[in-house]
Specification:
Order of helices and strands: HHHHHHHHHHHHHHH
Radius of gyration: 21 Å
Structural class: mainly alpha
Largest sheet: none
Length: about 375
């Protein structure tokens, strides 16, 4: 299928971009070929981008958190807490990059990220590695075997606010997991199995069950879980010396980060698939780009996540090359192409679209 056959050229008005339904059976081969050919020269993860970006985010995030804990002014503490949350959110989103770049691409980056971000925020990289890649599998995307997919647009209206607000409890859940369930699992194997299958992945599909870790990955899991266990109890023990205020402020900051990430997740896809396998093009059109000129998306979808649909076309493309890849494809394929069908103006429009879909579903029921 070519770009010209994807639209009604004889229509008197400007045609709309292609929809996901048009490509459930076959791919837009012209777009896929363009994605391959137009991005030559891109795709190499460069430490000159990753290291300064991650380290600066960490420095600002923890520095602002310390300020929020130490200052006496409540308004200033709130401002510093917000800055901390946004900076740590950006640092945390590098977990997405770690699942896609080759493990030898950036020597030391994975370990440094886990020590500086993953373990301190109780979300080490094993909670995404080996799980997120299932979301990109051609035959698993949007099915019950996809850990990161729920047909939210086809669910009840109350499911959307519940989906977002449940993220408020993330810090409590992580603390409970590492401080209590990890050591308990060492003593009671069935607990360990349950925790691994249902509470060891950053997933949204409650039906997903994680398979056992094997080989070198299993060894990485063990040291990351041990680090999380030590850090969780360090946080709890600190309350005996400095009180609960620092921990509660830190947890509030992480809660806001979790909610922001859940909002981003809510608009990362259109969530219109009912469980059937989809073509790559249909998966792309069920995903979302929020490209420039808007600046807000760079805050709520950092580290390349504003190009989430493009990422589904080229999962191994590093975040710093996605803007250029988008520019080339958009310039070559044009406004009325299939590619343009995944480009959306912002979060508010996307939330309204999904909410409207749930209301229509309710009316139909």
């Amino acid at each position: 299928m070519t770009m010209d056959t994807a639209f009604d050229q004889g229509a008197p008005t400007r045609p709309a971009p292609a929809t996901r339904a048009q490509f459930l059976a076959s791919d837009d081969k012209a777009m896929l070929r363009a994605a391959r050919d137009l991005t030559k020269g891109l795709g190499t993860a460069r430490g000159a981008y990753y290291w300064p970006d991650m380290l600066l985010s960490v420095l600002v995030g923890y520095g602002a958190m310390a300020g929020a804990i130490l200052v006496e002014s409540v308004p200033m503490a709130v401002v510093l807490g917000l800055v901390s949350s946004l900076a740590l959110y950006r640092a945390l989103m590098f977990i997405h990059e770690l699942t896609h770049i080759h493990r030898d691409a950036l020597p030391g980056f994975r370990t440094a990220w886990n020590l500086l971000v993953g373990i301190p925020l109780l979300t080490p990289s094993f909670m995404y590695e080996g799980v997120h890649t299932l979301h990109h599998k051609r035959t698993q995307y949007g099915t019950v075997e996809d850990p990161e997919y729920l047909p939210l647009a086809l669910m009840k209206p109350w499911s959307l606010p519940l989906f977002v607000l449940i993220a408020l409890l993330a810090p409590v859940g992580f603390l409970l997991r590492y401080a209590v369930l990890v050591p308990l699992g060492v003593i009671i194997p069935p607990v360990r199995k349950l925790v691994w299958e249902r509470a060891s992945a950053l997933m949204i599909n409650p039906e997903f069950r994680r398979k056992p870790a094997e080989g070198d990955f299993r060894r990485r899991v063990m040291w990351q879980e041990f680090g999380g266990f030590i850090w969780a109890w360090t946080l709890l023990a600190s309350t005996q010396f400095v009180g609960w205020r620092p921990l509660l402020i830190g947890m509030a900051i992480v809660s806001f980060t979790a909610v922001l990430n859940q909002l981003r997740t809510l608009v990362a896809h259109l969530w219109e698939n009912e469980g059937e396998p989809m073509t790559v093009t249909a998966q792309f059109l069920d995903s979302v780009n929020v490209p420039p000129p808007g600046l807000a998306a760079e805050i709520w979808a950092p580290v390349g996540l504003r190009y989430h649909a493009l990422h589904h076309l080229m999962p191994s493309m590093p975040y710093h090359d996605l803007p250029e890849a988008h520019r080339r494809l958009r310039s070559e394929l044009g406004e009325l192409s299939t590619y343009d069908g995944a480009n959306h103006p912002g979060m508010a429009v996307l939330v309204a679209r999904i909410a409207q879909s749930t209301m229509k579903r309710r009316a139909a029921d």
